[in-house]
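Subject: complex prediction, re-run

Hi both,

The earlier run crashed halfway through, so I resubmitted it with identical inputs.
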Amino acid sequence: MKPAGETLAQHLGCFGELPPEDRAALAELKAEVRDLPRQTDVLRRGDRPTHVVIVLGGLLYRYAVGPGGGRQIHSFYLPTEAPSVESLHLDYVDNHLGAVVHSRIGLFPHDQLHRLIDERPEIRRLLWRQTLVQGAIFREWLARNSTMTAYASLAHLFCEMFTRAQAAGLTNGNSCALPLTQGFVADALGLTAVHTNRTLQALRETGAVEWRSGRLTVKDWPKLQAIACFHPHYLHLRSNPRVRRKH
Amino acid sequence: MSRYYFNVRNGHGFTLDEEGLELSSDQDARMQAIIGARSLISAEVLEGRLDLRGQIEVTDDDNDEVLTVRFRDAVDVNEGKPPIGKPPIAANR
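This time it finished cleanly. Structure:
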């Protein structure tokens, strides 16, 4: 496994150009590496974090629990992604962050990152950009859940996770690991588990996608993208061929 | 805890649940089936269709049938003339 600092440099590099000296400075960051058993939390609402989390293996998720006990998942986080950079500037956490499956995380002390931010404007710019993209993803999920059918929503989630896996270098041909259960997908899309299962079956029948035993395989990307009305612009990835820098 | 599978039989045919849910009792499984049936019915209603002939067939790890919830038993259905007077108070469910 790559050192955590190099992984962070790789992740920030998805959003913009990182000068070699900044990349080297990030690579020198020391992180505490920790294993997180499945369905345990690393951050709970109200916590006052002193570290920024990076995913080194497995899959994390950010979620809220409603007054009736219902769970809304706000996002999933693949290896290389950094779910809690905003904790550098916010006093406490307003959601829970946990592991979907047994995961490995790195913890960067805030003071180390603050020092880099003060000394290196490109790192500051990319960390800011990374947290803004998080916001864009939350907005897309809200719009997806409130405007799309279950069928299109599920296709949209698959399109997004595959695109992010691609950016993180985690795809193998047309497939990537997506070790979710239907219960997690249901709580991300605001559906019941039964409805999710029925919807998955309907999507499978199109021949566009297969999701089985924790692995997502995209068999027909244009078809899946059309079903989902998916456009990756909101991910603001450098690798995104559709991003036109007109503005 | 035991694993329950929620197989759906409705206008779209039969959908096998290959994954199932870990639940503490048959009663919990019945509640999940009712909630699931209601969610399927409501999605269809939004598309302008109401077909109450479906059912959810709950099975266990041995593929034995535990219970079945018919869609028509998952909702109160009232047909006929509009109610007279004040609207009825919605059942608390």
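Strands of chain A lie at 32-36, 41-43, 51-57, 60-65, 71-77, 96-99, 103-109, 175-177, 209-212, 215-218.

- K.
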